[in-house]
Amino acid sequence: MSRLIIFKAEDSSAPGWEARTLQPSGSLTDFLGQHFDYSNGPVPEVGCRLPEFKHDDAAATFDHRGGVTHQRLSPWRVSRVDEYVGNTGQEAMDDVVIAYCAYAPLPEDQNPWVETAPAIVSPDSFGGDMAAYEAWKSRQVVTV
Length: 144
What we know:
Layout: E1 3-9, E2 31-37, E3 49-55, E4 68-85, E5 95-103, E6 114-115, H1 130-139
């Protein structure tokens, strides 16, 4: 199953969304996040929170792509969920989920930044296919 999940600010006057832009147009958006899900798992539920990431470009390595070094729960909590299921069989996604989020920050002392574990990519990630693993490695770009 393929699913597009869009996290959207329920109140566009809430703090924290005003600097968000769509690329490449640069137009403002109240989208907080967008995820493609192929897991057949459940849709986001009311009360769940988006993750928030801290980037340190100086820490960008082969294992810490994009410099993401820490994460915590964001101040955005899902307040309602709408799901739209395709019905023609021709859709790019089987369904689209819109999770509306309310701004509800957690106290700093209850929501510390936690260091993320580096991504571990190995031949096992490719079902033991060494050729696919080597081809993937050759396409990776690491800036130092």
